[in-house]
Amino acid sequence: MRHYNIVFRAPLTDVCNTCEKLETQISSLQKDGQDTSDVRNTLREHKAIAQVPRAFFTSPFDTRSHHMMNT
């Protein structure tokens, strides 16, 4: 019989599906004692690419409005 640690709560921050999937893979590989460097690199690259749109959506509303009016 398997026991799962399932918790229902609101996340502390928003996490995209790709980040969540990659973090789960890293955790699983760690538990199995396998190398996680490839998946960690993929996650790092994904976060770097996602940083640009994330910065736009987390910036103050005034900045976004100004940016949209000037493009």
Account of the protein in words:
The chain has 71 residues and is mostly helical. The protein has a domain at 17-25 and 36-69. The chain is 65% helix and 0% strand. The protein is built from three helices and no strands. It has helices at residues 17-31, 37-58, 61-69. The longest helix has 22 residues, at 37-58. It is flat.
Outline:
The chain has 71 residues and is mostly helical. The chain contains three helices and no strands. The chain has a domain at 17-25 and 36-69.
Query: Segments where pLDDT lies below 50 for 5+ residues?
Result: none
Largest sheet: none
- The structural class is mainly alpha
Distance between the termini: 58 Å
Calculate Rg over CA atoms.
17 Å
Number of helices: 3
Mean pLDDT: 80
What is the percent of helical residues? 55-70%
User: Shape from CA axes?
Assistant: flat
Number of strands: 0
State the order of secondary-structure elements, H for helix, E for strand. Answer: HHH
Give the strand content: under 5%
SSE blueprint:
Layout: H1 17-31, H2 37-58, H3 61-69
Quick tags:
0% strand; flat; 3 helices; mainly alpha; 71 residues
